[in-house]
Design brief:
With 75 residues, this protein is of the alpha+beta class. 37% of the residues lie in helices and 15% in strands.
């Protein structure tokens, strides 16, 4: 899924930001957001957690889920 997420980051760079965090290297952050499985995708808007995805999905579904979570106009 990592290559797909990298594609999404480039394609949607003007709509949302994609960041990667190594849960092993950042245990406090992982604990704060209750990351228990990998991969875990967290969606934030205005600094607040608005959605969590804990399984891989097809690219179009993943993007649609993110857009729905951040309530992008025209979505």
């Amino acid at each position: 899924m990592a290559p797909v997420v990298a594609e999404i980051a480039l394609e949607y760079k003007d709509t949302f930001i994609v960041a990667k965090l190594n849960a092993i290297d950042n245990p406090k952050t992982s604990q704060k957001y209750q990351v228990r499985g990998h991969p875990t995708y967290l969606v934030f808007q205005d600094g607040e957690l608005v959605e969590r995805f804990v399984r891989e999905t097809p690219k179009d579904v993943f993007v649609q889920n993110v857009l729905n979570a951040i309530d992008v106009e025209g979505n």
